[in-house]
Amino acid sequence: MNRVFFLLLVREARLMFRRPGELVNPLVFFAIVICLFPLAVGPETQLLRTLSPGLVWVAALLAVLLSLDGLFRSDFEDGSLEQWVVSPHPLGVLVLAKVLAHWLFSGLPLVLLSPVLALMLGLPADRIPVLLASLLLGTPILSLLGAVGAALTVGLKRGGILLTLLILPLYIPVLILGSGVLQAALQGLPTAGYLLWMGSMLTLAITLTPLAIAAGIKISVGE
Fold first, then answer.
1. How would you classify residue 114: left for phi > 0, otherwise alpha for psi between -120 and 50, otherwise beta?
2. How far apart, in whole angstroms, are the C-alpha atoms of residue 104 and residue 67?
3. Residue 79: partners with Cβ closer than 8 Å, 6 or more residues away
4. Which residues contact 139 (CB under 8 A, 6 or more apart)?
5. How far from 81 is each of 84, 94, 174, CA to CA, in Å?
6. Is 147 exposed, middle or buried (0-12, 13-18, 19+ CB in 10 A)?
7. Nearest Cα to Cα of residue 184 among 172, 170, 198
8. pTM across the whole model
9. Element containing residue 220 per DSSP (H, E)
10. 68 DSSP 8-state letter
11. How far is the C-alpha of 66 from the C-alpha of 122, rounded, in Å?
12. What is the pLDDT of residues 158-208, one digit of tens each?
């Protein structure tokens, strides 16, 4: 099973490198939102620093959401999803490899880019580790939850709006905790509690969402 997981991960990586636009678009969107915000509210450092926790997390959430509509689209169109459903391998393991590849090539680069953009907003350099920790825990949750909606709407021609309506309510707790941990760090308050909650949510998402994604795919392909 480990070999199947690894082979599917390599396959997804190769496919993503053939479609560089899908990798770059979320990063460009994330950067543009944060770069334009100081132009809208002004260059006042204290104001930008106060707003930076919410802004970084809203931009990250929307950037992840932007990449989700096509997560299973190409596999659905070429019949790969049907082969996954009838495969003897557990469908939950296969979709977990798919989501992991999606996060490695869209979510992880976003995490690595965030310190530069956060410094532009006046976030102190000694708070950057907290930002990285929160995004490393939070963005996989966004990808896993988003994949549930993507699986349910993959069979629809214009499922993007429905996907957004399905997933955004599930994103709210992650958004609250992610921005909350940065606000606590800026105020000099303990952040361990926030990070532990996010770690618990990530563990729960890794455990349960593959089952929900597999069920959504079965519904979409009509099996």
1. alpha
2. 13
3. none
4. 60, 64, 103, 107, 108, 110, 111
5. 5, 10, 29
6. buried
7. 198
8. 0.91
9. helix 192-221
10. T
11. 26
12. 666 778 888 889 999 999 999 999 999 989 899 999 999 999 999 999 999
